[in-house]
Amino acid sequence: MRLLIxxxxxxxxxxxxxxxxxxxxxxxxxxxxPQADSALATSSFDAxxxxxxxxxxxxxxxxxxxxxxxxxxxxxxxxxxxxVTQRIDGLDRGADDYxxxxxxxxxxxxxxRALLRRSQGRPEPVWQHGPxxxxxxxxxxxxxxxxxxxxPRETALLEVFLAHxxxxxxxxxxxxxxxxxxxEIDSNALEVHVHHLRRKIHAKLVRTVRGMGYxxxxxxxxxxxxxxxxxxx
Length: 233
Ligand code: CA
What we know:
Strand content: 15-25%
Number of helices: 8
Distance between the termini: 33 Å
Bound molecules: calcium ion
Helix content: 25-40%
Number of strands: 12
Number of domains: 2
Oligomer: single chain
């Protein structure tokens, strides 16, 4: 899942970016509102972490502006310890949640996962798809109850597919979700990750939709024994 972080404090911003990356998020971090605003206009994010105390226009200004133009992306605001008025303002202007500084990255990551599950209409903590069970908090995938070894990028890709089980996702939409602005993208990287998911889990886990992109395979197709090499499931 891809996050937009807006935090002007270099130490805190760097800590959040690194910490959330370690929790498996793809991160774009900006130190002021205008940069974040143009990133939001050109790229798709799954959630925003917004500090309210920013240079120039503050976080509340940007939040109101984004909501006014119909941005529905979940937003968590970061506020000062004594900022109760700010917290109320933040929620009333369209924030989904808030966290008081000092921030514990593990707590922020957990709140983000909860927000993302709700925004995707899948609030349950373990996502089941046929014999596959995925736990975003543990970043673990079980196939027929057996752990599957996935790289962080493969895990992130699997999570995107499971979050949108009914949708065909274009290659550019998938790349948008997996890679931040400053990452070099090899044009074959996505195909390679899809190949690995199929090899490690099931050949029909991901369908290729010709000319459009990829989609999660139907649950019924994951139960047959033809591609898993097992006789009679
Ligand atoms: Ca600040």
